[in-house]
TrEMBL record:
UniProt-recorded name of the protein: Nitrate reductase
Similarity comment text for this entry: Belongs to the prokaryotic molybdopterin-containing oxidoreductase family. NasA/NapA/NarB subfamily.
Sorted UniProt keywords: 4Fe-4S, Iron, Iron-sulfur, Metal-binding, Molybdenum, Nitrate assimilation, Oxidoreductase
Classification of source organism: Bacteria, Pseudomonadati, Pseudomonadota, Alphaproteobacteria, Rhodobacterales
Native source species: Jannaschia pagri
Needed cofactors: [4Fe-4S] cluster; Mo-bis(molybdopterin guanine dinucleotide)
Length: 679
């Protein structure tokens, strides 16, 4: 059996996979993300590639049809809406699952040809606060870390990150490094005790959103103990005094930690030069997520612990191509190559490169706002690509109702029946993992190839091709006459050359004229340069910026629902739900409840409870465990309405977002629980 070198389609670690058409799956020993390792999800990929449930032909109004009919309908609906109501009356909602080439053409169509920036992505749900925090601190959205930094660090602080379940191979790399170098220390900052905590030397059980107070306190401690690198700050950082003054005004015990635990943590962080602070959804998915990111970045900037091996802040991305989407401007407030949509010079640069007739000149609707615009009638035509917002967004019942109100909805997906696809007027069958070619970028900015090793089933087509086919029917055939994903990638690389005066470090010159078919996993910036090693940042004066962060006050709101992921499932289980061994880990929707809360609700292990929030209610099986703190039950978000015939967990969550990033606060819904007895 010939095995094809490709990349895992699940998390942002971006592991290399050797895959065969007979379902053989092996870790790629040569891939620098995983060196042959795979986690449970990656290992089971071979069990998910059958065609059961697949959408194999286009459908219009529920009837199977041919591509011309379906594409004509989509193009006409979008053209008519734009002609009648203007470009901002239409929207695309895309996904960190699609490949960079798909993302690129979708952005080009919406921003450069339709002339709106109403294209946002489910990556808004996973890393938008990090993007905004990076831009505020560094002047660009730059993730400075590498996986090797984690292995070289003497202290790893994992904040709001269940790496063991959500980035398992990265967790394995840390575990191996710690086994080889027992003096390496790991501190886990999390309101929950998770599988990740098992690896940690210390668990700091903060209150929800207590991380802002924790890191503000660290900044004040660094100053009071003379640990601030004054020379570094003077040369390379603005905003120190204001950030410090605010930090000094805060009470670090608002984090929920005792004075003793705080003192020990601060002493260890201060006394260790090689510190990497890894953070993920516990930081990002919050109404103050961007501030929490900046509270972490402040401490690294104040000590110059950034830009050197084994050092720095490191935001790990959730999805396989969240980073690739960022690179090609996949968010409603960005342009390709990390250019700024609201900067006239940047817009002119991209418009010239695209030779486009128009250009969006203001930010589009971010995810939550986009579906609110569907609800209130502003969006007349919506195209959802390879994601399931009727399950994954907060207030997901409200989102489903909003989609149902849109006069025209197209959905591209690999599956015939999804909660979102069931609301579509036109269903477009997408080629899936293993059936199409393109590139993805992982959490450490490494661009890898996804390669086809299976025939494309039925009438399915790759996303980039479907988008180009619609663009051609809307009158822009010449600008979208790409024959291959390689041609799309070449245009993206060429655009990066044009953008060089504005984005010098998104340097893709290493990809010029590259052998796309044989492309090896390659990190940017090119030539092994390390971001910020020279102390040069991207604000106009070349300096970084520290931000004053006001820590939120601890809230007492009864039960506060924390949502997240299971080890063996991915998003809404479209693929992982097919593998019996993955289902065996945690087989049904559940709620982890502290014994005190279980006693108060008079429920015990195995009981069913109704979890209600005033927006929806979900029926979940009770797990009683002290892994969660009192008042902080936890539920995974994977199960759909189709699987349970009930509301989804995310239907319980409000649409509250971080005001800067627009990222939803998916971890803080006020809920009540009561025993449920089936009628
Ligand atoms: Fe796939 Fe992530 Fe597991 Fe690697 S760690 S095999 S990328 S799910």
């Amino acid at each position: 059996m010939t095995l094809t070198r490709t990349t895992c389609p699940y998390c942002g670690v971006g592991c290399g996979v050797l895959a065969g058409a007979d379902g053989t799956i092996q870790g790629d020993p040569k891939h620098p993300a995983n060196f042959g390792r795979l986690c449970s999800k990656g290992s089971a990929l071979g069990e998910t590639i059958d065609l059961s449930g697949r959408l194999l032909s286009p459908k219009v109004d529920g009837q199977t049809t041919d591509w011309d009919t379906a594409l004509d309908r989509v193009a006409r609906a979008f053209s008519d809406a734009i002609a009648e109501h203007g470009p901002d009356s239409v929207a695309f909602y895309v996904s960190g699952q699609i490949l960079t080439e798909d993302y690129y053409v979708a952005n080009k169509l919406m921003k450069g040809y339709i002339g709106s920036a109403n294209i946002d992505t489910n990556s808004r749900l996973c890393m938008a606060s990090s993007v905004a925090g990076h831009k505020r601190a560094f002047g660009t959205d730059t993730v400075p870390g590498t996986y090797e930094d984690l292995e070289e660090a003497d202290l790893i602080v994992l904040v709001g990150s269940n790496l063991a379940w959500c980035h398992p191979v990265l967790h394995q790399r840390i575990a191996a490094a710690k086994a080889a170098r027992p003096e390496m220390r790991v501190i886990n900052v999390d309101p929950r005790r998770t599988a990740t905590t098992d690896l940690a030397d210390v668990h700091l059980r903060i209150l929800p959103d207590g991380d802002a107070a924790l890191f503000n306190g660290l900044l004040a401690h660094l100053d009071s103990t003379g640990a601030v690198d004054r020379a570094y700050v003077d040369a390379h950082v603005n905003g120190f005094d204001a950030a410090l003054a605010q930090a000094q005004a805060e009470d670090p015990t608002a984090s929920g930690l005792s004075a003793e635990d705080l003192a020990a943590f601060y002493a260890e962080w201060t006394g260790t030069q090689k510190v990497v602070t890894v953070y993920s959804q516990g930081v990002n998915q919050s109404s103050c997520g961007t501030d929490k990111v900046n509270a972490i970045l402040n401490c690294h900037l104040a000590t110059g612990r950034i830009g050197t091996p084994g050092c720095g802040p490191f935001s790990v991305t959730g999805q396989p191509n969240a980073m690739g989407g960022r690179e090609v401007g996949g968010l409603a407030n960005m342009l390709a190559n990390h250019l700024d949509l609201e900067n006239a010079d940047h817009r002119a640069c991209v418009q010239t490169a695209w030779d486009s007739p128009t250009m969006a000149d203001h930010a589009g609707l971010k995810a939550v706002d986009l579906f609110q615009a569907c609800a209130d009638g502003r969006i007349k035509a919506l195209w959802v690509m390879s994601t399931n917002p009727a399950v994954s967004l907060p207030d997901s019942d409200g989102v489903a109702a909003a989609i149902a109100k849109v006069p025209f909805v197209a959905v591209t997906d690999i599956m015939e029946n999804t909660d979102t696809g069931d609301l579509a007027h036109v269903l477009l069958p997408a080629a899936g993992w293993g059936e199409k070619d393109g590139t993805v970028t992982n959490s450490e900015r490494r661009i890898s190839r996804q390669r086809a090793f299976l025939p494309v089933p039925g009438d399915a087509r790759p996303d980039w091709k479907i988008i180009c086919d619609v663009a051609a029917r809307m009158g822009w055939a010449d600008a979208f006459d790409f024959e291959t994903p390689e041609a799309v990638f070449a245009e993206y690389v060429a655009l990066s050359k044009a953008a060089e005066p504005f984005a010098r470090d998104l340097d893709l010159s290493v990809f010029e004229g590259v052998d796309y078919a044989g492309l090896e996993p390659t990190q940017w910036p090119a030539n092994d340069r390390r971001f910020f090693a020279d102390g040069a940042f991207y604000h106009a004066d070349g300096k970084a910026k520290m931000l004053p962060v006001v820590a939120p006050q601890p809230r007492n709101q009864g039960l506060r629902l924390n949502t997240g992921r299971n080890r063996d499932q991915w998003h809404t289980m479209t693929r992982t739900g097919k593998a019996p061994r993955l289902g065996a880990h945690l087989a049904e929707p559940y709620l982890e409840v502290h014994p005190d809360d279980a006693a108060r609700a008079e429920v015990t292990v195995g009981d069913l409870v109704r979890v209600s929030s005033g927006r929806g209610d979900a029926i979940l099986r009770v797990l009683v465990t002290d892994r969660v703190a009192p008042g902080q039950p936890f539920a995974p978000m994977h199960w759909t309405r189709q699987l349970t015939s009930r509301s989804t967990v995310n239907s319980l969550v409000t649409s509250t977002v971080d005001p800067i990033s627009g990222q939803p606060a998916l971890k803080g819904a006020g809920v009540v629980i009561e025993r449920f007895t089936a009628a």
